[in-house]
Amino acid sequence: MASPRRREPHRPWTACRLSLGWSFCGPQRSSALDERTTRHPGYDISQRIRKRVEEIFGWTKTVGNFRRTRYKGQARTELASLFVGAAYNLLRMSRLIARAA
Questions:
Q1: Rg (alpha carbons) of the chain, rounded to whole number
Q2: Taking CA atoms, which of 2, 25, 32, 66 is between 20 and 30 Å from 39?
């Protein structure tokens, strides 16, 4: 059986880095969405709301320790997620009350 050929990794920035320096040749970031989608004002609103929702899931995974379930069975897991959601709501309410005062 023949061994697979080893290929050099594709590094388009090496030649540029040697000639111009890294600050000019950093990886170019681009969005998968074109201007037809991002030009509408609803897109910005959607992104702000999406960030808020994603923060809740991030909090549950890190602070709420809900990255993996600790319980067997759907009923117990649902109950645990209810408690984590209630804890997040209590934390959020305390911050809203502190901000209002």
A1: 24
A2: 25
